[in-house]
Amino acid sequence: MPSKPSLPNLPTIKGHHLSAPPAWALLERELFALMEDAARLYARDYFEAGGATLMAEDVDDLYEQCYNFGLFYALGAHDDLLELHLRHWNAVTRVSDSSFQHRTRFNEHKKIFRPSIYREFWSHSQAMEWHHLSEGNMAFYDFGVADPTISENERRARRFANMFTGDDPEAPNYDKEHRILRSPFHSAQGPVLEGDVEFAHTMLYAGRGLGGSCNYYGVRASLYPVVKDLEVRWYEDPARAKQIVDLFNRLVLQCDTPNSLAATALVTHAYLQTGDERYKRWVLEYTEAWWERTKANGGICPDNVDAQGVIGGGRKGCWWGGQYGWNHYQGYNIMFHGINIAVECCQLLTGDSSWLEFLRSQVRLLVDNGFERPDGQFVVPTRYGPDGWDLSLKPPGPSVLDGIDMRGYAQEASPMRPQEMVHLYHASMADEDRELIDSIRERDTERDWNDVDVSMGEKNRGQTELPRFQYHQGRNPGWPEQILRAEYAAALKSYRQMVDDDRTHLDIIQSNQVPMHVVLTKALTQVTTGAPQSIYNGGLLRATVRYYDADRQRPGLPPDTAALVDELSDRRVGVQLVNCHRNEARRLIVQAGAFGEHRFGEVRFEQADGEGLDAMRVDGRHVLVELPAGAAIRLDADLERFCETPSYAFPWHQDGIPVPFPQASAMGGPAKPEGRGSWSPAPSSS
Predict the structure, then answer these.
(1) What is the rounded radius of gyration, in angstroms, for the C-alpha atoms of the chain?
(2) What are the tens digits of pLDDT across the range 345-362?
């Protein structure tokens, strides 16, 4: 067995205070234990022995089944959670390869399995946009925080990123001259630039089949103003069908969309893994291009640019109507994911919080166009179309009866979604962003901001961030216990359903029904790291602090140890640490930031005699905390945010991430990070 590397000489603080563990600490440890058992049971009953899932779904959904097992391990779950995650991810990738048909036994369910993978990424025949690519990639990103030393994952990080930076001839997704991704749909074999009648109909009319019923996705793209009102059965006339498909190709498929800004997470992941400056430069270049277009468009982000990077190119300058853009059935929902992810990546890579203005401007745009419903609730528009902002108040649901059953639903004006607001504030910790949230709260009459609602599971719009925000504003003191208790109840329900499931593997294949997300990392992330849940559709981990087990030299809280971030500000963080074991000591390393991007200054803590506070200058990313059996301690730390070069490296990786078989950069070898302040914007070509 290889010997463990020696720990660096870290500033060390020892806890002395003995007390009964608080309720939140015991709940936290019980939640870990319950979900460890649930993950093992899930793998036993719904996987083959090699890790392949029994479920038939799109490949992103297959990855999603265990998307957070690696993160759960990195938070402190048992070693076998990472093993389960690796086994499942590798199996999904392996059996989904497009060179053969793995699933020879089919079912009667509408969801089917499709060979979808080429070079371990999406194939051209099953190319996806970044809404779904991101959902699938979440499982891959968390290998970095769980174990960045795995050689094949380092190679994959480079290979996947190169598909989007213009450095992979087999996947020419990126146009370096115009700073665009060449289609909303990407693959390991390049962009999808042409579709057929069926594909165009699905996007433009929300139909699964020609003349068939719509599906829940609704309309996803428009040809406006070239075609202002597409007739119902346009595809029945061959000449008209060719005309519409040609327009669809040119106005939708051969355009870029801000949804693709989510690709910045994939490329940032490669930077965190390798330190290769090419990846940093691309993230900043691509985000800068969309920020420039937004400013050129009067402050509203356009949802389409043509193959030359022209806003509304081919659409007579119409800046809305693109794939998953302002006019699609959910309006800003999907597009804002990409913007949010991109500005977080840029801030992480540069330490420059001015990148956040891109997201801030779009949030304020919605708020400035909001209004009060007759019942007094403040709502914001979600969609923009031919008549400007859609201020309708009709509920979601089938909206147009037009001869093909229904055209699908469109989201009405709604209360402001918490996700962007809380992510923006966590990134900036600026008064202006806190005041914006306060102004929304004052006009919110239908939501109880202290209520913990976990009904949507991991895939949510940030509704559980409201009570977390309230806690850190001193308005919701019971939140830690409430969120942990709610997550425990939800996890227990899934666990008991699995225990009571007596179906055979063949029964499961036939019904295609399996539990979804039996591991819930939302509460553990919020409580232990002092951060919002990552953007579900492709965001990287957010954390004010994270932890490493100093004795086992692995990421996460040591066994029996609980953590709570109980104070957040722009210059400070408060952390409670509790050793719930009554006989054994624990040692843990506290890191400033998810990727060491922050730095601790002075750290204050209780003196050994309990007669006041002691202080220690840390002036670094890490502090070692020793907790005797039954001991607890509270750290009150000064924090300088986004001042260090981020990396997946662990505290003991002093000479860089020790990948056994590292891959050299395609540009001539692994480069050392340049550090902060090395970015200068590329000349505008839009």
Answers:
(1) 25
(2) 999 999 999 999 999 999
Does a structural domain hold residue 171? yes
**Token pair in block for residue 552:** 């086992």
pLDDT value, residue 110: 67
252 and 390 part of one domain: yes
Closest among 316, 300, 195 to 258, alpha carbons compared: 300
Asked if residue 302 is part of any domain, the answer here is yes
Containing H/E element for 572? strand 572-579
- Residue 549: the pLDDT is 98
Q: Helix, strand or coil for residue 249?
A: helix
Quick: pLDDT tens for 611-636.
789 999 999 999 999 999 999 999 99
Regions in the chain scoring below 70 on pLDDT: 1-3, 106-110, 215-216, 395-409, 608-609, 665-686
Based on the structure, what is the number of domains in the chain?
Answer: 2
- 657 touches 273 (CB < 8 A): yes
> Within a domain: residue 145?
no
pLDDT tens digits, one per residue of 454-485: 887 887 778 899 999 999 999 999 999 999 99
> What is the distance between the terminal CA atoms of the chain, rounded to a whole angstrom?
56
CB–CB of 214/404 below 8 Å? yes
Q: Which helix or strand (DSSP H or E) is residue 180 part of? A: strand 180-181
The answer to whether residue 351 is domain-embedded is: yes
Query: CATH number, domain at 569?
Result: 2.60.40.1180
Q: What are phi and psi of 211, to 5 degrees?
A: 80, 0
pLDDT of residue 131: 95
Instruction: Indicate the pTM of the whole model.
Output: 0.95
Same domain, 551 and 410: no
Residue type, 664: A
Cis peptide before 225 (omega within 30 of 0): yes
Domain extent, residue 618, equals 12-20+544-640
Handedness of CA 43, 49, 55, 57 (dihedral sign): positive
Residues 343, 195 share a domain:
yes
- Interatomic CA distance for residues 555 and 565, integer angstroms: 18
440 within 8 A of 469, measured Cβ to Cβ: no
- The overall average pLDDT reported for the chain is 92
> Closest Cα to residue 473, out of 490, 455, 449?
449
Residue pair 115/96 in contact by the 8 Å Cβ criterion = yes
Backbone angles phi, psi at 345, to 5 degrees: -65, -45
Of 357, 392, 414, the one marking the end of a domain is 414
Q: Read off the pLDDT of residues 197-253 as tens digits, 9 standing for 90 and up.
A: 999 999 998 777 787 777 667 889 999 999 999 988 899 999 999 999 999 999 999
